[in-house]
Design a protein that fits this description.
303 residues; Beta-lactamase; alpha+beta; globular; 47% helix; 8 strands; 14 helices; 3-stranded antiparallel β-sheet; homotetramer; 5-stranded antiparallel β-sheet
Chain lengths: 303, 303, 303, 303
């Protein structure tokens, strides 16, 4: 199927939206990005690429990285992982510590911040050179060595990430963090600071639409593991807008405060959108609209 | 595809499980059902039926009825519905009132009790003879006039349903219940007291796997509405085990405390299981196992 | 000590306040009372009375009645009471059901609504003619047979008290309500609908400042019971403004949404204020100010 | 009044209790203290001392120090303090972060951990040499230069105080902590690690029973400030057992996990008890019993 016309039509219809949302303003590197940026890329399972707008401009993937870290951990420790983190949707904004406290330090799922910190902790324990090895993993699954950490972003996160420190220390107090808080957060802030273009993002998530095989046809995850990560993306990928996204878009996906969203139809394609302005729930405003429009017009959905 | 061998094999493997869970004990009618009952039925989209065990024995569908009530409301008022109930997973047991209170009387989703009461309220407002008309709706979509309310069950629910009264009055205090509490609850207790067999249940849910068309090929819901109800089932259909079900089974579905579970693969089939013993989350213990086994062995999933 | 000059001076200073707060508007009987009403009465332990303003005009005592009901129950069942209700401050608005749910149906204290419903339930179980007997109790401790229920108020509460119905049914679901919800609420709505003047209120609370002996010198409560009710008033008497009242005023006391407040210095006096305008926490705005001024200027406090 | 006989009788009655509770075990310095230790000291307002048992053995005052830090801050910044911390009871265990999160980083009161961290932050901002100056303050109000920090305790707290780190970072994320987390916690861990005997503790709290004047007759707090701190102790001094303590004992007071409790009757006396075994709420088991017995037998109470 030729997705180019539909991408073009969505781009044209949405690009001119006046209220583009507000960029994340907690660190300078994110607050200075123009809300005029808007790109879409689709990569189908025969590895054809369709793109429009700023699809080749790198942006900070932020929380989208949590899915990639989860994939790496799942490939390393398999289901042992679920002793330390649950798979239930939280129905709460991404940074609430209350649930963590009420549930004895077991995060609700691996895509909220506290859960992602547990995942980061497992990577720090299991990788020889955590930051280097994780970056290499990303480069391998995308077949793209140009992908890198944005060190300014990582550094800014470190200087202002008080709430992540709070979550990490709370996990530590429950015995659900093996390594030093500083070490885990250093890894985590780097992980979130990976920069990618829309196109690179579709490549990175290709394995989730391709039964666990990455773009180089290497089996990264088993089919069952792949299916499970897709289920988690669907139920937990959009903070307290997860139900809304399932309802309106109907695809597994993940968003980040950098304004990126990636979603996929298993066995068919990965689609990514980038527009830095966020809605009140912290998800890309135009990105959500673009994906709603895409699935409405194509009638594509897992449901 | 011939599903009979796989159903037989699952039935045989699971039937002999020693710990079959505990039957719901809050009303006599449910507590007296034997945990030995176990049936499975699958209805594919070409209307072939496969069944094994007690698939023709009626049981109380309980919360499974919420999806059917939601379908009826959706067909009547379309998206106006979403002003009064949200679509986010609750991550909480089915009867918690706390969320309702923190969110100004807007239930998290239509499948938790408070949300289902709002749905019942809309039916009471919009149907001429609510109980008769709703039963007729069920009979129409199943093409089966033998389906009926179990009045003993309805009456027992009324006598012990204090928490549902509490939820209804709380909704009323927030102005999110139009009709008298007694009237809404009378309808609701009847709705939950519908008795069906596994086979009837697959027929009732056929429309969700068939893009909105029921077994008589009548268009009950639009494709978009159907897709949305499936999304809600996936994210909210199993109380605080919704994430787990998506993760382990990977199909939209709904459970009831009568021990029934129904799930579906859009465009392919509906499958129902009945085993009255419940796990600690209030879902059928053997039912969950049967569906996990079914999707694991067939590798079927929406993900 | 002659309290007349200080009462006069407080009355004069506060009477002219422009922002007098807002009257409770959930029932007509309360919403139609003028915010110009303002009265103060002090009754010392030698039974001298000092008053100013509208101290002889009756108003709806509402939640203030909870202390009197608690006193009656305490005199009937003594410490058995504490199996069904706790004595901890709630730190929450008066009508939140969340705590009740998280704490298995044991209300935090007898002065929040759910706790007062348990108290009402005990009275219904233990009094032959609950409404008549409770009214007689009030008339006895005040030596005033003119005190009565305002039946219009009681009836209006019944018609709009959805949240109290919700609380009662929730208690019932936890097995912490022995009698029928309707019967308990009928009693409770009457109890809250007692009308008293500031002067009558000081008489009714005289026993709490007089080691358990009422104005007719009859021993209603033991010294220890009296001390305990005073402690509960101090920690729980003002919803989520209890700490503020202890901090600013420093006396045990209780407020009602009718705009009444009563407070007392053990062994010295009872003081009551009435001004129907409420602050954002639901306590009489001018009443709070008057009592703060009173204790600041007289330097009177239990601390 | 000669308090010696009543102290002796309480000591004798309670000393032999078999179940003495459990010592705090999160740091070695606290876990190794014998539960056999038991001392009581009373200092009346004419500066007579009555004591029994281990009243001259130093122990870690822990959270009791929060009241002394609050007094110092109140003397420095007066009511400006209340912009950053509230005065409402929490009704929750001492270390819950949930409330902090729901209330935008304003701790419920200065005696829960998060509130005490804000107090520590103000001291760090306002004292030239925070640790030295605060210790000097304690030495001045007790007229005892032998009082000191137990550096082993302070160091152990630092190594295991993950939850305090979490609270501090959460406050920081809400902008309610001016100084570096490490600096504030270093001060806080020292503050909690002050060691005192029962006798020294009565001297340190003498100012709260003496209208703000310390044992050297220096006016540390105004009468109004003193009254307010006493009110806060009464409503918030015992975590989620504050209501219980007001109800059973009826005096303002404060406990610490080192097993110390101090309470006072304004204008009359300060009493302190030490027994390291704790009850399930984290308060000294025998200490609570001793104070209940003391006020029951003497009929002393502010109520």
């Amino acid at each position: 199927m030729n997705y180019q016309p539909i991408l073009n039509s969505i781009y044209k219809a949405i690009k001119t939206t006046k209220d583009k949302g507000k960029v994340a303003n907690y660190i300078p590197e994110l607050s200075q990005v123009s809300t005029d940026n808007f790109g879409i890329c689709l990569l189908n399972n025969t590895q054809e690429t369709f793109k429009v707008g700023d699809a080749l401009k790198p942006f900070s993937i932020q929380s989208i990285s949590k899915v990639l870290a989860l994939a790496k951990v799942f490939s390393l420790v398999d289901n042992d992982l679920w002793k330390r983190v649950d798979v239930e949707p939280s129905g709460n904004p991404f940074n609430h510590l209350s649930l963590l406290e009420h549930e004895n330090g077991i995060p609700r799922n691996p895509l909220i911040n506290s859960g992602a910190l547990v995942i980061a902790d497992i990577l720090v324990s299991n990788l020889e050179n955590p930051k280097e090895d994780f970056l290499q993993f990303i480069r391998t699954i995308t077949n793209d060595n140009s992908i890198d950490y944005n060190l300014n972003v990582a550094n800014s996160e470190r200087l202002t990430g008080y709430r992540n420190y709070a979550a990490a220390y709370l996990l530590k107090s429950f015995g659900n963090l093996e390594n030093d808080v500083e070490k885990v957060l250093d890894f985590y802030f780097h992980q979130c600071a990976i920069a990618m273009t829309c196109e690179q993002l579709t490549k990175a998530f290709f394995l989730f639409s391709n039964q666990g095989k990455c773009i180089q046809e290497k089996q990264i995850l088993s089919k069952s593991q792949t299916k499970r990560i897709n289920a988690i993306m669907l139920t937990c990928g959009f903070y307290d807008e997860a139900g809304e996204f399932a309802f309106e878009v109907g695809l597994p996906g993940k968003s980040g405060v950098g304004g990126g969203i990636v979603a996929l139809l298993p066995n068919h394609f990965v689609i990514s959108v980038w527009s830095p302005g966020l809605n009140s729930k912290g998800n890309s405003k135009l990105g959500m609209q673009a994906l709603e429009k895409f699935t409405t017009e194509t009638k594509i959905s897992i449901f």
